[in-house]
Design brief:
The complex is a heterodimer of chains A (139) and B (68).
Chain A (H helix, E strand, L loop, with lengths): L1 H44 L4 H28 L2 H30 L8 H21 L1
Chain B lengths: L1 E2 L1 H7 L4 H8 L3 H8 L7 H10 L4 H4 E2 L7
Antiparallel strand pairs in B: 1-2
Helix pairs in contact in B: 2-3
The chains are: A mainly alpha (139), B mainly alpha (68).
Chain lengths: 139, 68
């Protein structure tokens, strides 16, 4: 009886750990990103000199590390269905990016004004990836 | 692919969240497997079958696809 309860409690403990593991990338990634952004903000308002450069560089490195660490930890902690949703989002986002970027290159090759800016290409790509992810994940 | 996950879960009075916790996946994953919108990987299918004490083919039915 006790052993049965122990086994029953075991999955609860492991489920709690799994849930914490899934939340950790968001928590720690956000803390690192916000800290990095804070350092950059302090650096921007500081007077010119070595401390200012050091603050900006440290902040930039923290932001990059936050993104890389957060993304890697997120993919490791995500379950297989969420990974598949990410796969669809990245694949379709990539095709949209290639189409839009290719269109820009063609227009420029013929000395025509591109119908879409670099920012537009970025925003549409991200929007498509986001919509596809949400649809695949929560449909 | 059809499956009996919803029935098996209901027989045990488990919510989707509880089943998800027992399988160490998200509730969304359980919901999509139950409604046939997502086919689990082989390791997850084995985990599901083991959890209910059944064989994989007693939980999932591929409708005879791939039979030579």
């Amino acid at each position: 009886m006790t052993e049965g309860r122990a086994v029953d409690e075991d999955w609860k403990v492991r489920a709690l750990q799994a849930r914490r593991r899934r939340r950790a990338p968001w928590l720690y990634g956000s803390v690192i990103l916000v800290s990095g952004a804070g350092l950059i903000a302090i650096g921007r308002s500081a007077a010119d000199g070595l401390p200012r450069s050091a603050l900006l560089l440290a902040g930039l490195l923290m932001v990059v590390f936050g993104f890389v660490f957060g993304a890697a930890a997120y993919i490791r902690a995500a379950d297989e269905q969420e990974r598949q949703a990410n796969l669809w989002a990245c694949a379709l986002g990539l095709w949209v990016y290639l189409a839009l970027f290719g269109m820009r290159v063609l227009f420029e090759a013929f000395d025509l004004p591109p119908p879409i800016s670099h920012e537009g290409v970025f925003l549409i790509t991200m929007a498509v990836a986001g919509v596809v992810f949400l649809r695949q994940r929560f449909r | 692919m059809k499956n009996r996950l919803k029935v098996l879960r209901a027989e045990r009075n488990w919510s989707q969240a509880e089943l998800a916790d027992r399988l160490f996946v998200s509730r969304q994953a359980v919901n999509q497997i139950e409604t046939g919108r997502y086919d689990p990987s082989l390791p997850l299918a084995f985990r599901i079958a083991r959890l209910f004490g059944l064989k994989i083919e007693e939980v999932f039915d591929d409708g005879g696809q791939g039979r030579g």
